[in-house]
Amino acid sequence: MHFDIVVIGAGSGNMIADSRFADKSVAIVEEASFGGTCLNVGCIPSKMYAHTADLVDAVSDAPRFGIPADGAVSANWVQVRDRIFDQLDRDARDARRGREDTPNITVLTGTAAFVAPKSLTVTSGDGSTTDISGDRIVVAAGSRPVVPDALSQAGIDCHTSDSIMRVDAAPRRLAVLGGGYIGVEFAHVFRSFGSSVTVIEPSDTLLSGHDHTITTTFTNTVASHYDLRLRNSVTDAHRADDGIVLSLDDGSTVTVDMVLAATGRTPNSDRLACAAAGIDLDDTGHVVIDAQQRTNIDGIFALGDICASVPLKHVANREAKVVADNLLDPDQPSIMDDDLVPSAVFTDPQIASIGKTEQQLKDAGTAYKIGVKKYSDVAFGWALQDETGVCKILVDRDTDRILGAHILGPQAATLIHILSVAMQFDIPATQLAARPFWTHPTLPELIENTLLELD
Ligand SMILES: Cc1cc2nc3c(=O)[nH]c(=O)nc-3n(C[C@H](O)[C@H](O)[C@H](O)COP(=O)(O)OP(=O)(O)OC[C@H]3O[C@@H](n4cnc5c(N)ncnc54)[C@H](O)[C@@H]3O)c2cc1C
Ligand SMILES: NC(=O)c1ccc[n+]([C@@H]2O[C@H](COP(=O)([O-])OP(=O)(O)OC[C@H]3O[C@@H](n4cnc5c(N)ncnc54)[C@H](O)[C@@H]3O)[C@@H](O)[C@H]2O)c1
Where is the active site (predicted)? Predict the structure, then answer.
């Protein structure tokens, strides 16, 4: 079968063939559920769990506000799980059906692998194969979780984010390997379901790529929530009568009922046999793309987590838009710019950031001004009775441009957008502080006050 366009992966790739492509034959190849990681095993279910965990925390915290709430508060795992996946599984089925019902689109269910630059074989679950080719190909096959060798070699069943959200019960004791995005988001979720959580992380702090004010404040804040094993990883594992025993670098052991590996992800370029098409990969297996999302092979584009770009859904969405525009009108190319991507970690306390960290500015020798304010410095922070939240903004000393912003505390993921807009539109820090009215008393006053305090 030959198509004008072949899209591999119906995660962000499913956004490509909109109504502007109605006169083109399009094949969408997907081996699993439509909607990809974000809808099925990523952003959306994990945030539905995270919000539930936030509610549990709020109720648990009620006595601090003079609201009697007797006894331990916990959520019902099965009810929450079924509420989440009844909705999302339906959405994934609807997304597939919508494509199957579109006249110019052919949905192929199976695993695609390149055999030549514009030719692929699709192998379905029953082993049957279909050969397809396309004038142009969009590689949107994403990434998958990695499990540390110490676990896989020991033959220990280990969950990843792909499976842990659908288990039948929250474990009594959970070990989370990795204190990055997924580790700290799931530690927060499982604690709220009553699990006792051990986090094992080789670095000195959790979320180690973040600004040091955030990593140290966060790590200190959650030290009483979890059994933190920093500067450690698992060296060996075995099953014993009372659970799974993990041996750590420092010689200690941890016994748990369930293990979650949250130790990073690897691109699916190997399973897609990108090498057979001659597509350039970097040394971590990510597809190399230019600013128009083109690979080195004429007519092959790539987007999302399989590429060497920021592995976040809002970036994949933007890349899909750029690819669609460039498939339709290559003479007026759309350009991808991911210089200023905000990110958020939906843990407790919430974290959000954009731009440079203070370490990066120091390393680059940039002259900067710094403002740091606590949530407890502004009126709405008093209403929240917040004791740990903080906002840090870094500004170029010479140009007054905002270079980086890092927030830890309630609504951080929402607050960061004020700084994202200011940075995208190049609004100088002093003007951002002085020109808009900042409604009193609201959390955005935290940003106003941080900007007013720049040293
Ligand atoms: C637990 C978790 C939470 C996350 N939370 C957030 C968040 O809050 N915010 C955020 O911005 N990002 C988040 N992310 C990251 C986000 O999910 C990804 O950046 C985004 O989904 C990547 O989209 P994609 O289209 O590149 O890949 P995917 O959505 O993974 O799509 C790739 C598709 O290709 C299919 N596929 C793979 N190989 C083949 C093949 N050979 N043949 C056929 N089909 C194939 C897969 O089945 C999949 O459906 C999270 C990720 C995880 C794991
Ligand atoms: N809110 C969000 O936007 C969000 C949420 C979840 C995931 N994501 C995306 O998913 C990606 C993957 O998340 P992740 O948490 O798996 O990766 P990550 O890169 O954020 O963190 C991995 C962590 O595992 C640690 N680690 C590595 N090897 C280890 C080992 N053997 N034992 C213990 N720890 C080990 C690393 O030091 C690191 O801290 C993220 O980079 C992000 O792009 C985003």
Answer: 440
Q: What is the DSSP letter of 46?
A: H
146-263: same fold as 2-142+268-328? yes
The per-residue pLDDT string of the chain (455 residues; one tens digit each, 9 = 90 and over) reads 999 999 999 999 999 999 999 999 999 999 999 999 999 999 999 999 999 999 999 999 999 999 987 777 888 999 999 999 999 999 999 999 999 999 999 999 999 999 999 999 999 999 999 999 999 999 999 999 999 999 999 999 999 999 999 999 999 999 999 999 999 999 999 999 999 999 999 999 999 999 999 999 999 999 999 999 999 999 999 999 999 999 999 999 999 999 999 999 999 999 999 999 999 999 999 999 999 999 999 999 999 999 988 999 999 999 999 999 999 999 999 999 999 999 999 999 999 999 999 999 999 999 999 999 999 999 999 999 999 999 999 999 999 999 999 999 999 999 999 999 999 999 999 999 999 999 999 999 999 999 999 98
Per-domain residue ranges of the chain: 2-142+268-328, 146-263, 349-452
Answer CATH for 349-452 from 3.30.390.30, 3.40.50.2000, 3.30.70.420, 1.20.1260.10: 3.30.390.30
Closest residue to atom 2 of ligand 2, CA basis: 345
Whether the CB-CB separation of 370 and 454 falls below 8 Å is answered with: yes
Which residues carry out catalysis? 440
Known binder of ligand: residue 142?
no
pTM of the model: 0.98
Q: Which residues line ligand 2 (CB under 6 A)?
A: 148, 177-183, 185, 200-203, 208, 233-234, 262-265, 311-312, 343-346
Report the topology of domain 2-142+268-328: FAD/NAD(P)-binding domain (3.50.50)
Q: Is 278 annotated as a binding residue?
A: no
- DSSP letters, 388-406, are S-EEEEEEETTT--EEEEE
CATH number of 146-263: 3.50.50.60
Sorted by sequence, the CB contacts under 8 Å of residue 101 that are 6+ apart come out as: none
Query: What is the number of the ligand closest to the CA of 200?
Result: 2
Q: Which residues pair with 130 in a beta bridge?
A: 122
- Rounded Cα–Cα distance for residues 292 and 284 (Å): 21
| Angle of the 445-452 helix axis to the 412-424 helix axis, nearest 10 | 50
